[in-house]
Amino acid sequence: MGVKDSYKHKGMRRSLVRKLREKGIANERVLEAIGTVPRHVFFDEIFESHAYQDKAFPIAEGQTISQPYTVAFQSDILEVKPGDKILEVGTGSGYQCCVLLELGAEVVTIEYKEKLSLLAQKMLGQMGYQASRYLVGDGSLGCQEYAPYDGIIVTAGAPIQAVEVLTAQLKPGGRLIIPVGDLTTQRMVKITKVSESQIVKEEFNNFAFVPLLGDKGWKK
Ligand code: SAM
Question: Is pTM beyond 0.80 here?
Fold first, then answer.
């Protein structure tokens, strides 16, 4: 790994994992991935002490790196198996993408803001991670080019309209994890496409994400 990752950082990651366990995350593979990916490298050095607190933090372009609990929760219910093809909508910093890669997924990640995509691509390269594709574009429409997917994870708050087009890009057995609601609060929703004619919808707790923009997202 071409980034600084000291004993101090590793120790802080272990306590973050303990905290996530206390908050109810029980998926050992996800906890191991969170315990492996250095989150501090996504922070300016002066803010490094915030990297292993369980909170979201501002990144460039007015966006955020998601809270570790949120990353762990979404990764858990996504049920990633090694070799799964996962579409991530909202590359942001690239941290969630690293967690998916640690889980053995093949990741196609799409980001609306080109600057963030380029920064994430550079950072992941330095860390020794490699997504299959770093795309710039409107992920509210998914990405038909590489569909169908075993899983789709949306890391921005979506209106209900985004669900149908994304569900259509799942394989049978595929899962869509998407925060659905208004501009301030969203309920985490999991859609499992059991077969082409049957879907199962589950709803979880409330979360607060930055808005999903684009055609099926919120208009600026
Ligand atoms: N997964 C990210 C991480 O680990 O840092 C967190 C992403 S941040 C909470 C949400 C991201 O979604 C932002 O970077 C934002 O620019 C992006 N976004 C918003 N609307 C989008 C769209 N229609 N397509 C792709 N990305 C979008």
Answer: yes
